[in-house]
Each structure stands twice: as structure tokens, then as C-alpha cells.
Design a protein that fits this description.
The chain has 568 residues and is an alpha+beta fold. It has helices at residues 2-8, 19-46, 77-89, 201-213, 285-288, 352-359, 370-382, 433-438, 461-481, 499-505, 507-521, 531-536, 548-562; strands at residues 108-117, 127-128, 132-141, 153-160, 165-168, 170-173, 178-184, 189-199, 218-226, 229-236, 246-248, 259-261, 273-279, 299-303, 308-312, 332-335, 338-341, 363-368, 387-388, 400-404, 409-415, 425-426, 446-451, 486-490, 527-529. The radius of gyration is 29 Å and the shape is globular. The relative contact order is 0.12.
Amino acid sequence: MKVRAWIRGEVSTGLPKYSVVFVFLALSVLIFVLRHMTILEFQHKVNPPLNATIIIQRVSTVPDTHHSFCTFQLLSPEDAQEERLLLDSITWPETPVFPDPLSLVNTTDPAHSKFVILPPQRGGGQWHVGDQLEVMINMYDFKGRPKKSGGDVLLARLHNPKLVAGVVGHVVDHLNGSYSAVFTLLWEGSAQVQVTLVHPREAVTVLHRLNSKQPDRVYFKSIFRLGSLSETTICDICLRPTRQPLCNYTDIRTGDPWFCYKPEKLSCDARINHYMGGYRHTLEAEEKKLFQSGVNMKVSIRASGPASVTVFPKGEGQPQVQNSSMNSGLSGYYYQGVWRALDGTTVRQFNSSAISQCLKGKVVYMYGDSTVRQFFEYLTAVLPDLKEFNLHNPKKTGPYMALDYANNILVKYRFHGTPIRIAPVPISELRHIANELDDLIGGTNTVVVFGIWAHFGSFPMEVYIRRLQSIRRSVVRLLDRAPGTVIIIRTGNPKGMTLTAALTNSDWYSMLQDKVLRAMFRGLNVHLLNAWEMTLAHHLPHNLHPQPPIIKNMINVILSYICPQKGD
């Protein structure tokens, strides 16, 4: 009765008959306005005015509560536009929705798929040095039915085992189940085609979902300690929402994000180290079948007909290979086990004394992951007078330093900052490449070699793009104040594929990273060490850490950039 009386305005409140109704309406309007202001405030935070200032704390004294899985720093309009263009440039062909349930028999089968070498374009039915060789590849499923759409990940190589020669091919997806691989013929004699299925398109769909929905499938930990009290929590760029507050370790100079769950008893300032926690992923049983070595992952496709051709000497009137437009994007090839560049660089062969002479009076800074550490290890192994200092750091974590006192050569190596899959390392040693570059004086006697790729394979591509943007800003600043500094950037490389390797750093993802890296540093006065082509074109098996013959060739390229032949 009281409720009905209140609605009729008959409850005795000391107010006129309809006053309660007006109060109710006024409160409703007030609630609506406050809620609308909250929404506008949120939108302002997500899309601030162009002149908005973003302040990031290095360590939160009051832990943050995280409201989203992956939180990205707001970009400038220019960087945001570049990010959109880069993401558009690496868009992969969409895979049709999986049938329910997904069945392996409907996916790409390399055993049923075939490639055929197309006839030469020039008359006479012969191939000559400088010609293009085209291969048509047709994909089939496990029932032998032709595939109707694209999206498979294919690698192509042309090689001659006797000549220890090799070059990569350019693969074109026709989006209808067929692909072309185009090669430039660069040596006389036999040239054998090799086409490899890295992943079927259905596996790419799984990988894309994992990077979007499970970016924390590689997880990290940190120990927090104060006196005798010690706690361990999980850390990452992307942490799942819980009621547990976060410690924000976003780098104040670069804006690169990093978070840890806050310990129950200790403060965020008590963090002492960083290390890899492990792997975790959620796949359906049928999805795991998409990542089987020897079945549908890193498997060669057979030829329908001959798999090789005979190449004759260059014909009259043909342009020089190095100046030919058909080599667009091709950086070089192997011949007799030696890398020959096609970008105009003369790759010299350096023995130990030539290396010492080249590096004499120079400081070489190396930053990156373990694939850059290989360069440090090569130099200290080959140069007898380059002695490594014992800095009492754990093996394989660094940092490292070596000195050749007689020749005044200093070589230093440091891991790039988080994320790094590594044994426990003090947080004082976690330094971003961009910050290290900003702290360099630079000059004609300074060499910088860096690479950053392998530890980002489980994250959305935005994480990698933004890391490169901060590094590029530092590269530009370094070249502005010291234009004589030599900067060499190592790309990623194909690797051996296991289930875990594929799910955390697949060749498909590394291929996309390679495109992003090239675009990011195009036009700057830097040198690109094309580790992707140098590994793919070689006869040795793919490995996260390329084998010594490949590293030796990479070192020769690096030294040829540092000490170019006169006239280059």
C-alpha cells in the first residue's frame, strides 16, 4: 500500500502532492548525466586530445588495478597511423570458419600437394643466368582434394649441393589454393627447386588466435625480497584481470610496458630479478594435429615432373644481375659456400688478422637476444687477443665484455629488455635497446649491432611495432648527434619447428616481423643483415641459432659494412 501511495504521491512527506515525482525525475536525470560524464571521461582517456600529455610511472608505489588483458600506451597520431599501415601490410589471407568439429583431413597435406616448373619464357627452351624461373604450386588436402583458398605458409629455395649455392624464392599466394615461387637464376649449372610447407592456413588461424587471446602463454616471474621475506609473482606485458593489484614497471623513457602481480606482503619496490616461468597454451586435440613435424609442419613438397633445371651462361644483351629490377628485395645468394650480396656491397672474407685490423680502435656494442650473442661468441673464439672479462654474470645471460688491449678493441654485449626468456637476471641488468642507444656518444669509431625478434613471437604484433618505434627514435637521435656511427640491424631467421616452438615463435610470425622491421628502418642510414635469407638460402637445417658456417658469413657481411672495400 505504501508503494502504491508513493506512486500516487499520497505519502505524507511534508511536500506538495507531485513534489516526490519531480524529485524522482530529477534524481534520474542526475544519474544519467553523471553516467554520461563517466563515459565521456573514459573516451577522453582512450582517445585524448592531440596535445594530451601521458605520464608513465616507472614503479608504482600504489599498485594499479588492471582493467584489460593487454594495455597499450597511447601513440602519437603519426605513430598510430604507421602502426595501422604496418598491420595492413602484413594482413594474412583469412581462413574460412573451421567446420565443427575441425578435421585434419580437410586441411592442407604436403604429401598430396605438388609443384611444377614452368617452361622458360625465352625462346629455345633454355634458362640462362639472369633469367627468372617460375614454379607453380598446387595444394591439396588429406583426401587429395584441391584447396580452394590461400593462406598456407610456404618457403622456397633454389640450390646446388655440389656448388654449395643457394638463393631464396619469392612466393606469391593466388588465394585459390595455388601459389607461384619465382627465382632469379644466379649461377651456371644445375639448380634444384625446394618448396617447403611451414604451416597450413588452418594452423595460421590457430596461431593468430593464440597471439590475440593467449599472449601470456609464455609467462615470466620475478622474486620480491625484503630481509628474510621473499615472494614470487607472475609478470608479463599482458596479465589477465584478477582482483590482485599490479605493479607497473613500464619504462619511463620508452613507454614499453611491463607488469607484475603485486606480492601479498611486499611492495613493488622489492622486486629483485626477472626470469622465464614457462609455457602454457590451450589447444583442442584436433588443433594440435595441425602442428606435426614430418606431417604438415616444415615438410617438403614434391615436384610433379623434374625438380631441377640446367642454367646456361648469361645471354648477350642481358643486364647485370645486380642492377636487374627482377632482384627487387633479394639481398644475396650463396656460391661455393660464400655469401654474395646483390645490393652493391662487396662482401670481403675476413681471417682473424683482417678482423683485428678492421676493428682496431673501435668499440662494438651488441644488443639483442641469443642470436646476437652468437656474434660476440664468434669474435672471442676467433680473435686470440680479444679476451673476455669475467664479470661474474650467469652464463648466457650477460652482459659480456671483451678487450683486445693491443689493438684497442672493445666488444660489449647485452640482452635487450623484457620480454626475455632467460635464467634469473637482476632487474638492474634489464635495459631496453633504445635507452642504451640514447646513452651512447657514438662516432666513427663506434659500431652498433642489434637484433630483436625471437622473444616477441607470442604477443600481438602491436607490441613488436611499438618496441621498434622506440628503438628507431633512438637510432635517429644517435645518427643526428654522431652521423659516423655504424649501425647494423640483424633480422630474424627461420628455425626448427616443434609444437612448442611453433606456438611461441613460429616462422610465420617471424616472416611478418621481418616485413615490419624492413619497413620501420627503410630510408635510414643503417645496414640490414638479412639473417632470414642467409639462413633460408643455406643447405644447413633451420635452427634458432644458425650453425657456424652461416654465422661466419654473417660476420663477414657485418665486417664488410664496418670496413667497406674502397669504392663501395
